[in-house]
């Protein structure tokens, strides 16, 4: 959901939450998608334990889009610390801001208007997102930054030891000479961040990477009036790479 509480019908103008799941879960297992990363990770961890207890699930592959990849990493750390009754076999992330998101970094000044390089979508994002974040954020936006995630990544310790990680990123938007920590990017997350290029091997020792000139999601593709095949979450080749990673796990 995009607010605290259990699953409920979303507002008509919301693009975050989705209803209609087969089992409405309580608040303790419902991720608040614009809240604290580790709070969401804890709720995901509880859900994985629910799967183990109710359905005897013992092996899990986690596929996380956007911040879902960070929630998955947080849940993996908790599972290791608490000796959970299941094994995380693999992690696949698509457009996950392992090193911060472009709008989050814009909001706190890590990226400036000059970094948009005059690219129209990026200029609109810079104008819109900081104002949106002040109204709709519940804590995530200031965590989707290099400043916060540098420390957060180190705090994950050896949580991913023995777990193969496949990092997937989109680079639909490009700018010659642009800040390499932003460009190219998928409309929300840079390839540098999505492929965890600034994260030490000790934190993520088993990694494979894949990138293509794609947007973050059909939300971004729709905003620029592009075909949905341009979206990381919709593109046939991207989904085939997810399938490959699952097979290899």
Please sum up the structure shown.
The chain is of the alpha/beta class.
Please describe what this structure looks like.
By secondary structure, the protein is an alpha/beta fold. It contains 8 helices and 4 strands. It has a domain at 92-248. The chain has helices at 37-55, 68-81, 102-107, 120-136, 146-155, 191-194, 218-223, 236-248; strands spanning 59-65, 87-94, 165-170, 207-212. Strands 1-2-3-4 form a 4-stranded parallel β-sheet, with helices on both faces. The model has no long low-confidence stretch (mean pLDDT 93).
Properties at a glance:
249 residues; alpha/beta; four-stranded parallel β-sheet; 4 strands; 36% helix
Fraction of residues in β-strands:
5-15%
What gyration radius follows from the Cα positions, in whole Å?
18 Å
Q: What is the 3D shape?
A: globular
Helix content bin: 25-40%
Give the total of beta strands: 4
Distance from first to last alpha carbon: 30 Å
The largest beta-sheet arranges its strands as 1-2-3-4
Structural class: alpha/beta
Runs in which pLDDT lies below 50 for 5 or more consecutive residues are none
